[in-house]
Amino acid sequence: MTGSTVRLTMAQALVRYLCNQFTEIDGQRVPLFAGVFGIFGHGNVTCLSEALETVQDRLPTWRGQNEQSMALAAIGFAKAKQRRQLMVAATSIGPGAANMVTAAGVAMANRLPVLLIAGDTFANRIPDPVLQQVEHFGDPTITVNDAFKPVVRYWDRIVLPEQIIQSLPQAVATMLDPADCGPAFIGLAQDTQELAYDYPEVFFEPKLWRIPRPRPDRDSIAAAADVLKGARKPLIISGGGVRYSRAEDVLADFAAKRGIPVVETVAGKGAFTHDHPVHVGPVGILGSTSANALAREADVILAIGTRLQDFTTGSWTAFSKDAQFISVNAARFDAVKHRAVSVVGDAREGIADLDAALGDWAADANLLPRGKELFAEWNRLLDSLQAPTDAAVPSYQQVVNVVNRVARPGDTLITAAGGLPGEVVKGWRVKDPHTFDCEFGFSCMGYEIPAGWGAAMAQEGPGGTGGTPIVMLGDGTYMMANSDIYSAALTGHKMIVLICDNGGFAVINRLQQAKGVPGFNNLLKDCRIRDRNNPLHVDFVAHAAAMGAQSRHVENLADLEGALEWAQGNDGVTVLSIVTDAWTWTPGDADWDVGVPEVSTFETVRAARASQEDIRKQQRIGV
Q1: Which portions of this protein are annotated as coiled-coil regions (predicted)?
Q2: Could you point out which of 119, 175, 598, 621 has its C-alpha 20 to 30 Å from the C-alpha of 524?
């Protein structure tokens, strides 16, 4: 190679490259990679850790407790930074790598960037089989790391030191591409990490990455404008892409000018405050009666930055079969779904171009006011559901309301799987933009606490909301993944964790019984346990305290408000627990297609099957 070179091991070169990548957030130049979550083992401790140790002042390494959870923390960080700054999650080979596959699925489904680095077997194969190596008899090239291929956007295995010169820029470009955004995986053969190579110094020159904003094709904009001009009752669906494009202000102006109500997806919630003049609620299975009524009536749906997941579409029963979709999306794959007039491009630029093409057109002047009237009815329903009662055990909505009321400016609500997503998507009233994170693309139990840790880190630099992550989760999820309470306590990051204890997996028990199956193996009392009348109860307060958190059990709603105020004044991690009702849920009016047995001895299952067939008759065909 021509030009000057520097002799480094492959691991050293990889780390030096990461340290020299930069991005801009709100006009401020910052490192693209803010840090590394790492658990070291024999596949990365002798070489990669040696390289990371020498740069810990520039690229800090944080020790996780579990490979899955530390990668989830990286995802929570990326979401809090609106995909503009990233983290690395590094693990050894074998079970450590396999543990991260679930987190890769979360990032893949939610279109979020995280760099996953795992050790691998020996490229020369001389020591095979090495510790933790799975062996495929017919293909010696397969390792555990091949399991990442279905759940990452970019995958590579480095077996020669010079390969990172091509691989690393491609991985970064993929993670920052709005169309292809998602996790990147790089496997590092153990013997390749140690090898020295004369790397060209130009490879390590500082590089400033900017998020591209691809402009839509003019003809697609013209076609979309023609369709929208013919609409009688148009509706806008605001998805996560609106937030990541930072298109909320442009969309708000567009919707107000054109008189079109805006409904939101789960990923899109938080782009608008609850009381914004164009906002009329969440749509779909976790949606409001206001948004769903407008969705059923809409003849043209302008879907912006959404992949149209089944919880948004009610398994494609939420809209008229004759409704026309216009889809503005950076990803062509999403833009062409359901016969949409596809506008492939950045959300902000697409909205601006569409606005220019519409001239002086506006929707019926009564459309947006009617949407706000329907939304007011929904808010009155929420008020009634959230009002305190004499019930011995509070409902989720009552708990959500107290947390929502006490939350301070910039505080971010974080939750994921279980019963809470439906309750907070419906009932959480967003006060400040970008302060709501419900991971429901993959619906991953265990996301919540690690994401809180990552989000707490994200508050430390540009782009943060300046508040505290408030994590809400159920007792079932807490039992599945709680070790990052200890992680955050170790590192001194502040978050509030609220455990809603309803005695097991209550929301899936709700679905089970709604489809005719008797309660079985979900609530603790319905499991195969020693004493069903007296299930063993976990002392969450003592458990959290043992991991370094300040903790308190809350007896009722009045105590909850005081406990949250106490938690706000604490440093580090505070964990609260409260018993909540396993049977009271916010009503919904959208359908969901799930498999129900075609043949069953239960009459209740047979009735549920008939209802399910009725649901399927209402579905749009996606071709």
Answers
A1: none
A2: 598
Average confidence (pLDDT) over 543-572? 97
With the C-alpha atoms ordered 564, 570, 571, 572, is the resulting torsion angle positive or negative? negative
What is the 3-class SS of 282-333, one letter each residue?
ECCCCCCHHHHHHHHHCCEEEEECCCCCHHHHCCCCCCCCCCEEEEEECCHH
Type of residue found at 25 = I
Contact 489, 572 (CB under 8 A): yes
Could you give the domains of the chain? 5-209 (3.40.50.970), 218-374 (3.40.50.1220), 389-579 (3.40.50.970)
Secondary structure (3-state) at 235: strand
H or E element that contains 118:
strand 115-120
In our burial notation (b when 16+ CB lie closer than 10 A, e otherwise), range 495-533 reads bbbbbbbbbbbbbbbbebbebbbeeeebbbebeeeeeee
Query: pTM of the predicted model, to two decimals?
Result: 0.96
Return the exposure string of 145-184: e unless at least 16 CB atoms fall within 10 Å of the residue's CB, then b: bbbbeebbbbbbbbbebbbbbebbeebbebbbbbbbbbbb
Q: Would you state the structure tokens that stand for residue 253, as one six-digit string?
A: 């102006």
Rounded-to-integer distance, Cα 323 and Cα 340, Å: 10
* CA atoms in the 13 A half-sphere facing the CB of 523: 19
Looking at this protein, which amino acid is placed at residue 373? E
pLDDT in tens, 227-257: 999 999 999 999 999 999 999 999 999 999 9
Q: Which residues of 85-100 are buried (b: 16+ CB within 10 A; e: fewer)?
A: bbbbbbbbbbebbbbb
pLDDT tens-digit readout, 116-132: 999 999 999 999 999 99
With vertex at residue 455, the alpha carbon angle to CA 452 and CA 457, rounded to the nearest 5 degrees, is 115
Residue in the block written with tokens 């009662």: 389
Q: Strand pairing partners for 62?
A: 37
